[in-house]
Amino acid sequence: MQGENLRKGSWLEEEDERLTAFVGLLGERRWDSIARASGLKRSGKSCRLRWLNYLRPDLKRCQISAEEEQIILQLHKRWGNKWSWIARSLPGRTDNEIKNYWRTHLRKRTEIEEQGILQFSAS
């Protein structure tokens, strides 16, 4: 498959349906085989990431709740940027989703709070 021209970029709905069908038949393993068997001109890695981050039936599609946000904050304080470790504590959430949420919503807020605490304690 390396010699072939692999498709890159956005996934089509038809590709999603085909990948979902083949994962249903073959299971969540051997992604290169799934990519070949399904006829998708995608790499096994691309198929695996598409499945894990977008197509898995157990993914939560709603916004991150306040409770989940607190868990992210607590675990990030303990482990740092170990997104896959944090994701294990939030069923239905992916490490990529948590990382993106951290970077867009939580990082600046925690930096501001830490600066406020530092300024307050220096006074």
Automatic annotation (TrEMBL):
PROSITE patterns membership: HTH_MYB, MYB_LIKE
Domain of life: Eukaryota
GO cellular component, one term: nucleus
Keyword hit for DNA-binding: yes
GO terms of molecular function: DNA-binding transcription factor activity; sequence-specific DNA binding
Myb-like domain mapped to chain residues: 3-55, 56-106
Keyword Transcription regulation found: yes
GO biological process: regulation of DNA-templated transcription
Annotated coiled-coil segments of the chain: none
Keywords, ordered alphabetically: DNA-binding, Nucleus, Repeat, Transcription, Transcription regulation
Pfam families named among the record's database cross-references: Myb_DNA-binding
HTH myb-type domain mapped to chain residues: 3-59, 60-110
Gene3D superfamilies cross-referenced by the UniProt entry: Homeodomain-like
Subcellular location: Nucleus
Primary location: nucleus
Record's protein name: Transcription factor MYB27
Highest classification ranks of the organism: Eukaryota, Viridiplantae, Streptophyta, Embryophyta, Tracheophyta
